[in-house]
Design a protein that fits this description.
This protein is α+β, with helices and mostly antiparallel strands. It folds into 2 domains: about 10-45, no CATH class; about 50-189, Nucleoside Triphosphate Pyrophosphohydrolase (Alpha-Beta Complex). The protein is built from 3 helices and 10 strands, in the order E-E-E-E-E-E-E-H-E-E-E-H-H. It has a 4-stranded mixed sheet with strand order 7-4-9-8, sandwiched between helices. Helix 2 (about 155-165) packs antiparallel against helix 3 (about 170-189). The longest helix has 18 residues, at about 170-189.
Length: about 190
């Protein structure tokens, strides 16, 4: 276990800046472990889920969508925010997002890992699942009203090329593709 006390920044004061539908933002004044004070801008997020989905044809299922903070369109694995007010677990969220965004259901979802995406300022924890035994659904759950998505299915080499061209540029998708490549290499040996 890492030594905690020598690194801890104790909160002296917290000022709530913003409370939205997805995030909350606060400004903390902290006492530094070596003496003195500083300020930390913090973003609180309920967490999210990403799904690595590989078709029976050995292609990764991705969605193309516009991301406003980037002001561009990118390719990503199916993903979404955990709706804590609905009492959904990360696995239930993953199953819902997979079906809503891609029209696929999985026989099982295997938890791969959970990771903090930007721990320097945000507490968002992303849970990554591997969807196994995919099947297309005739009448899938409806997409969110405010989403415009297009589904893509790419081979491993095509997905890696999209990383090089920056069409795939988010951490969860790059991690999922590298995990898929590791599985592929393991199966070949």
């Amino acid at each position: 276990m890492l030594e905690y006390e020598a690194f801890e920044e104790k909160t002296i004061n917290r000022q709530e800046i913003f409370k939205g539908k997805i995030i909350e933002v606060a400004l903390d004044e902290v006492a530094l472990p070596m003496g003195g004070t500083s300020y930390r801008e913090l973003v609180f997020h309920p967490g999210g889920v990403g799904v690595l989905a590989i078709t029976p044809e050995n292609k990764i299922v991705l969605v193309k969508q516009f991301r406003k903070p980037l002001e561009r369109v990118i390719l990503e694995i199916p993903a979404g925010k955990i709706e804590t007010h609905e009492g959904r677990s990360p696995m239930e969220t993953g199953a819902r997002e997979l079906e809503e965004e891609t029209g696929y259901q999985a026989e099982t979802l295997e938890h791969l890992t959970s990771m903090y995406l930007s721990p320097g300022f945000a507490n968002e924890l992303l849970h990554l699942y591997h969807a196994k035994n995919l099947k297309k659904v005739e009448n899938p759950l409806a997409q969110d009203d405010d989403e415009v998505l297009e589904v893509y299915e790419l081979t491993l080499s095509e997905a890696k090329e999209k990383i090089q061209t920056q069409e795939i540029c988010d951490a969860k998708t790059i991690y999922a593709i590298l995990y898929w490549e590791t599985l592929f290499l393991r199966e070949r040996n």
